Amino acid sequence: MPAALSVPDMPAKPAAASRPAPARPDSLYALGLKRACDLVAGIVLLVCLAPVILVTAVIVWLAMGRPIFFFDKRSGRDGVPFTLVKFRSMLPAREGDADADGSGDGDRLTPFGRLLRRTSLDELPQLANVVIGDMSLVGPRPLPERYLSRYSSREAARLLVRPGLTGWAQIHGRNAVAWPERLELDVRYVEMLGRWYGPLVDLWIVARTTGQILVQAVTGRGISAPGNPTMPEYNPDYRPSPQRHATAPLGSRLGLPDEPNRRT
User: Fold this and answer.
1) How many whole angstroms separate alpha carbon 59 and alpha carbon 69?
2) Which whole-number Å values give the CA distances from 91 to 69, 104, 124, 159, 227, in the listed order?
3) Whole-angstrom distance, CA of residue 185 vs CA of residue 170
4) pTM score > 0.70 for this model?
5) Which residues contact 210 (CB under 8 A, 6 or more apart)?
6) How far is CA 85 from CA 70, 158, 175, 194, 226, in A?
């Protein structure tokens, strides 16, 4: 895995930028056991939570009408796009509603939609993404495809693993954490996953998430960024230079061969 590109115009994130990007985790757990655990746990959770998912779907339909689900293209492992599914928590967008910083989302969020987000019930359909293989139970949260060109070489390392329902950044503040810190937490997870204690990290994240869901359902802490109804658009606080992005396609930033990405 090549070291992160030297970017002289990045004063806002000197500590993270000076650290090399990690290689793809190659432990036995990361290469195979983690996926097996995801498949088994995903199927069990889908079966056990089927009544909750069905009731939630009916209430979404009654409260907001159709469509019941929200589908969105996100970047998966190695940047391969996939369709993320979750329960709809917002009214349909109208012209002028959505601002670049996400502040317009507040007008579209319904009271029931806010409840879905506080309880994380809106995320339950993503168990299907886990079973299919697009996602893992634990990993960096999947972000929109349009963010790909905005990552530094180190930040792009978050794409070396499958995105997850929950992750290291989620148990350290979720959306209350600013983007630079959040992306760095994702990369640190990738680093930890390749070490002997990678399975213990996943177990710890799952345990912490269970308690965090209960806390956020009561307090709402971490559901949105400070001053925003959801999470603002990720716009790096520096101007991407040609050296940073145009000469460093995603594949090279991830240390991948120059061929079409394929999910395995």
Assistant:
1) 12
2) 12, 12, 19, 31, 20
3) 9
4) yes
5) none
6) 6, 20, 19, 28, 26
Q: Tokens representing 15? A: 């500590």
Within its chain, how far is the Cα of 97 from the centroid? 24
Which pairing describes strands 69-75 and 81-87: parallel, antiparallel, or unpaired?
A: antiparallel
The pLDDT of residue 90: 85
Let me know: does 42 contact 124? Beta carbons within 8 Å.
no
- Summarize pLDDT for 66-117 with one digit per residue, the tens: 999 999 999 999 999 999 999 998 887 665 554 444 545 666 788 888 899 9
Of 99, 187, 117, the closest CA to residue 179 belongs to 187
Q: Cβ of 80: how many Cβ atoms within 10 Å?
A: 16
The Cα 12–Cα 153 span in angstroms is 15
Contact (CB, 8 A) for 189 and 104: no
CB-count burial class (<10 Å; 0-12, 13-18, 19+) for 19: middle
Detail the DSSP E strand segments found in 58-181.
69-75, 81-87, 136-138, 164-166
Kindly report, residue by residue over 207-236, the tens digit of the pLDDT.
999 999 998 888 777 776 666 666 788 888
Q: For residue 247, how many other CB atoms are within 10 A of its CB?
A: 10
Q: Among 21-25, 171-175, 252-256, which stretch is predicted with the lowest mean pLDDT?
A: 252-256
Q: Output the six-digit token pair for 40.
A: 């088994």
Residues near 153 by beta carbon (within 8 Å), at least 6 away in sequence: 2, 3, 4, 5, 21, 248, 253
- Which token pair is 224? 């949105």
Report the share of the chain in percent with pLDDT over 90: 58
Q: Which of 73, 238, 98 is nearest to 148 (CA)?
A: 73
